[in-house]
Amino acid sequence: MRCKGCGGKASIELRRHNAAYCDGCFLRYVEEQVARAIRRDRMISPEDRILVAVSGGKDSLALWDILARMGYRASGLHLDLGIEGYSATSRQKVEAFAQDRGLDLIVVDYRKQLGMGVDQLHRKVRRSPCSACGLSKRHYFNAVAHQGGFDVVATGHNLDDEAASLLGNLLHWKTGYLARQSPVLESNHPHMVKKVKPLYRLAEREVAAYTLLRGIDYVVEECPLSEGASSLLYKELLNHLEQRSPGAKHNFLYGYLETGRSSFREADGEVALRDCERCGQPTTGSVCAFCRMADLARSASR
Asked: The pTM is what?
């Protein structure tokens, strides 16, 4: 098998593109896909200060590595979720990555902020682990970015993540989420920071190959609280489909973004946002969902 880029011996096959690459050309392919996403969707500019949400997993560290190599001003934000037996390792991987490359890193420790880790939080508020974690992550991503004067928050969502999210939203007809599912979420409030997903053109397997070739040390294990999450089931179903029909995930997501999303965006009305009375972050009510959840968790701890 010959490399599509240079004609030499290929080492990595991309069935969805009916192509293969050697190691060097594959690394260039990955960076070109990210550059294309940034350019096509007008994600970021050279002047922007970017806050990259880094969990310690392959996707977020790969994204931070790519943006730094491209010359962007990219700092990292790590949320220490306080999950026993997992979070300490994740934090160590992120801190080592930042130190080795001389990159700025901000760490938010849930136990210091909330008095508990997310493993305790979800039980006290009687929400699923992913729901409680997702709500608090969205809060801190935006709050830290806004307070720090960052222009953009970048997350490591890849093609598989976005396709699985789309499948879940369609199965349950979550029209509000469908209207907002996009590689770019523009700011619609003075305290809301723009959010982008520069890896959405890359499959999970491709990101994993990139981290291997770049020698990036990351947390391999899945979050222990994600066991049984619907998103994992959706990914499994899409992987079966991809195996039978290479490019299925690509066509599913891209088709929606290019032709289906506009219908949901037209049907989704504008929502008036105001400042949360507690934290000042954008919300539709007087107190945001995160502050209400934090209040409930603290009340349950008394």
From this structure: 0.94
| Bridging pattern class, strands 184-185 and 152-154 | unpaired
Domains and CATH numbers, the chain: 40-221+250-269 (3.40.50.620)
Give the Cα separation of 206 and 26 in Å (integer).
9
Query: Among 4, 12, 16, 45, which Cα is nearest to 246's?
Result: 16
**Calpha distance 279→294 (Å, rounded):** 11
Run of H or E including 158: none
Burial of 156 (0-12, 13-18, 19+ CB in 10 A): buried
**How confident is the model over 85-111, as pLDDT tens digits?**
899 999 999 999 999 999 999 999 999
Nearest Cα neighbor of 4 from 35, 31, 29, 37 is: 29
CA distance 260 to 255: 7
Tokens coding 212: 């291997």
> Which stretches of the chain are assigned E, i.e. beta strand?
12-14, 19-21, 49-53, 73-80, 105-109, 152-154, 184-185, 194-196, 274-275, 282-283
Please, which residues have CB within 8 angstroms of residue 157's CB and are 6 or more apart in sequence?
A: 59, 165, 197, 199, 200
